[in-house]
Structures are given as structure tokens and as C-alpha cells.
Amino acid sequence: MTTITLLPDPANPLDHSQAEQAFADILDGTVADEVVAAFLIALAERGETSIEIAAAARAMRQRMLPIEAPENAIDVCGTGGDGHHTLNVSTAVALVVAACGVPVAKHGNRAASSKAGAADTLEALGLDMARAGDTAEASLAALGICFLFAANHHPAMRRIQPIRTAIGRRTIFNLMGPLANPARTRRQLIGIARPDYVGTYAQALALIGDGMAWVVSGEEGIDEISIAGPTVLAEVRGAETHSGTLTPEEASLPCHPIAAIRGGDAAHNAQALRRLLKGEAGAYRDAVLLNAAGALTMACEVADLSEGVVRAAEAIDSGAAEALLDRWLRF
Fold first, then answer.
1. 34 phi and psi, to 5 degrees?
2. How many CB atoms lie within 10 A of CB 280?
3. Does the entry feature the keyword Nucleotide-binding, yes or no (predicted)?
4. What is the pLDDT of residue 221?
């Protein structure tokens, strides 16, 4: 390997050209591991800018293995790392929203800091990860849902993962999952674990400028629309962003403490998701209804959150969401 040790000085914010070249070099493996590690740590300690986040996302998109998807496909994905160890909300939301007739290309991974990531829980439900990867494009076309296991679609990340593991802390690559969906979805509900960072993240999306998204973060630092209280929201439409807040009450739902949706290992979370799809009431159901309503609203399928809750509840109570899961497992 030819080693290039010159990366821009991360002590100062990088401009567009510096950032794009830096992440191209990092992902192409032309920079020594120790140089990459020092660069990523310095960025994290300073705080990544929207320009740097957008540049990293563009670099990953240029090197990913894409799939074809319907024009109206969406993604519901969080960055993870919020430390609350909740049940798998976005995974359940993907099934519910898809059962409402909106194609969902769910991008995800195994757990990094939680006990069960989307891939872990889906596997515990019976989804064969290898087959799901091979048939992702077909299942999205036929069923309206697929799971895009990040490791299958981002080969450039293979040389980055050992560096991230050695660093042992959050880096800019923890923010990349929702920004590099292999289905190139143009509509997204994105959860991040830092409410103070919603504006910066939304501006990165605006710099990429190719779709519509809601970027959300519960005020307690949860990477989804919070069932416990207010959520910081930024809506991105192309190159424009608009900020605000929303609460469960706006969706005609009660608040619940975050502890009420505390999860466990993959088997535990899979069982909870099955009970949810069978109609079990409680905080988990309300959290899924709230986030599904957000996804449906963002996708312009419903007029507001309250209508979205009604649509999502119908998808569960009619058995459509569970039937979709079962068809998916057999696909």
C-alpha cells in the first residue's frame, strides 16, 4: 500500500474540497491507519461540521453497492449510540409503514453499543441475513420491504472498521448509516442521539440536497421521535431546512418514560416485536405508532401525525404488518 500521511489539519473546519479529498483518501486506503485514527479523533473532539458530514456521506455513496428501488421508497433509520438500550423501534416502524403501502428500504447493522441492532433482532425473528441481502431488491419490489445490511453494501468500510474498533469511541462514521442508504432513498426519517446536533446534521443533508427528510432527536438524547416528551425536529426539503419540535400529544398519544421501552438481547427484542405486531398495547406500541406516524407524514402519505397514528394502528390491528413479516421470512 502506498501511504499518504498528508491529511488536512482537523484542528480547523475543512472546506468542501479538503473534506471530499480527505474522505476519498481514507476510504480508498491510501492513508496509514494511525493517521486516519488521529484525524477521526480530532474531528470528533472539535465537532464535525455539516460540510465534513456531507463530504463523508458523498464519499461513501460513491463507493457503495446500490440497489434499484421504487421512486417513493423511504428509509427509517437511526444513528444509534444513544445509550438508552430501547426495543427496536425503527425496525418495527419499517414493517408497519411498509404494511401501510409505502416501500421501505431499511438500512441497518448489528449492534455496536446496544444489545440488539436491527440485523440482530431481524435474525432472531427468523430472517436469513445472507438471503435477505441476496434478495433485497426483489423483496422490495414484491413485498415493499427489504433490509440492507450495511456490511454487504459498503465494502470500503471494511478497512475502516478495525480502525473504529481500535479507537473505541464515536467518530463521524457513526453518523453515516442514514446518509448512505444503498437504495438511494429520497425520503427518510432519521434519528440521531444528539438533540443539539440536529441542525448541523440537517444542514449536511441540505448540502447533499437530493430529497426530503425529518431529522429527529428526543430531548433526552434518544435517536427517534421520543415517546417521553419533546423531540427536536428539522425538516429538510432539498437545500432548505426548517426547525421545530413535536410531542406525543400532537399525535394524540400519551407520554411514557423511556424506561418503559427498555429492551434486552436480540431474542428478547424479537419476542417484544412479535407481541407488538399481534396487537399488544403499551409504551412500545405507542412509540412505534408515533414514529410510524412521523414517517408517514414525512412521506406525504398522511396530513398530520394523528392521521398517521390511525393508519399505523390499522396496519397492526388488521394483522397486515405481521402478515408482511411472515411473507418476508418466507421470501
1. -70, -30
2. 13
3. no
4. 94
pLDDT digits (tens, 9 = 90+) for 286-328: 999 999 999 999 999 999 999 999 999 999 999 999 999 999 9
d(CA 146, CA 68): 11
- 82 in a labelled binding site: yes
Q: Look at 188 and 85; give whichever has higher pLDDT.
A: 188
Known binding residue 102? Answer is no
pTM over 0.85: yes
| Cβ count within 10 A of residue 134 | 12
Alpha carbon distance 52, 63 (integer Å): 17
199-211 b/e (C-beta count within 10 Å ≥ 16 → b)? ebbbbbbbbbeee
* 89 annotated as ligand-binding: yes
76 is known to lie in a ligand binding site: no
153 annotated as a binding-site residue: no
Q: Is 223 annotated as a binding residue?
A: yes
User: Does the annotation flag 113 for ligand binding?
Assistant: yes
Digit-coded pLDDT (tens) for 211-261:
999 999 999 999 999 999 999 999 999 999 999 999 999 999 999 999 999
- Residue 111 is assigned to a ligand binding site: yes
The phi and psi torsions of 231 (rounded to 5 degrees) equal -125, 135
114 assigned binding-site residue: yes
> Annotated binding residue at 293?
no
Do β-strands 212-218 and 231-237 pair in parallel, antiparallel, or remain unpaired?
Answer: antiparallel
Q: Is 106 annotated as a binding residue?
A: yes
- Residue 134: partners with Cβ closer than 8 Å, 6 or more residues away: none
Compute the mean pLDDT over every residue in the chain, rounded to the nearest whole number: 94
Return d(Cα 188, Cα 173) in angstroms, integer.
Answer: 18
Three-state secondary structure call for residue 95: helix
Tell me which residue has cell 438500512: 107
278 is in an annotated binding site: no
Residue 81 labelled as part of a binding site: yes
